[in-house]
């Protein structure tokens, strides 16, 4: 499993348009093969800041998403206006709060 998490920040004046376009991308992305979850939440509207969390079955699924026409169009439209920081982690299992490793669902 691949986990991508981080934040994106757009000018607050663009937040409504950005979240509308993101909602469209999210709907299409959630229907893709290999997506386990794809979520974003506005955490600070006054700064235009969103928290992003994605889970993918594998790198092939994530790469297919990044190469999809709608993803490329979204990045072309918003990439220059959006600041962000992301981290990608490969995970073979999950550790519970007590540290015990379990297999992903």
- Could you say what the CATH topology is called? Alpha-Beta Plaits
**Order of helical and strand elements:** EHEEHHEEE
Percent helix: 25-40%
Q: How many strand segments?
A: 6
Alpha carbon gap, first and last residue: 10 Å
Topology:
Layout: E1 2-9, H1 15-30, E2 35-44, E3 49-56, H2 59-67, H3 69-78, E4 83-90, E5 94-95, E6 101-102
Antiparallel strand pairs: 1-3, 1-4, 2-3, 5-6
Helix pairs in contact: 1-3
Question: Can you characterise this structure?
Answer:
The structure is a single chain. This protein has 105 residues and is an alpha+beta fold. It has one domain (2-92): Alpha-Beta Plaits (2-Layer Sandwich), CATH 3.30.70. The protein has helices at residues 15-30, 59-67, 69-78, and strands at 2-9, 35-44, 49-56, 83-90, 94-95, 101-102. The chain starts with a strand and ends with a strand.
Question: Outline of this structure?
Answer:
The protein is of the alpha+beta class. The chain has a single domain, classed as Alpha-Beta Plaits.
